[in-house]
Amino acid sequence: MIKFVYKGLLFSCLLGIISCQTEKNTLDLIEAIDNRQTETALHIIKEVSDLNVQDSLGLAPIHWAARRALPEVVKSIVNKGCDINSTDKKGYTALNYAKRANNSESIDFLLKNGAVVYSKGLPNLSDGPFVDWTEKGTYAYYLKHDSISNKSFLTGKYIENNQFKGWDSDTSSYSIVKVKTPKWEVTTSEPVFVLGDIHGQYERMIRNLKTNGIIDNQLRWTWGKGHLVFVGDIFDRGHQVTEALWFIYRLEQEAEKAGGQVHITFGNHELMVLNKDNRYIAREYKNLCNKLGLDYHALFHPNSVLGEWLRSKNSMTKINDILFVHAGISQKQIESGISPEQVNNLMRQYFIAGSNSNNSEQYEQILRSFGPFWYRGYFMDRSKYKKITEPELDQILKALKVSRIVVGHTENEVLSASFNGKIIDVNIPLADDTIPNQALLIEDGKFYHLSENAEKQLLK
Question: Domain 185-458 carries which CATH code?
Answer without folding.
Answer: 3.60.21.10
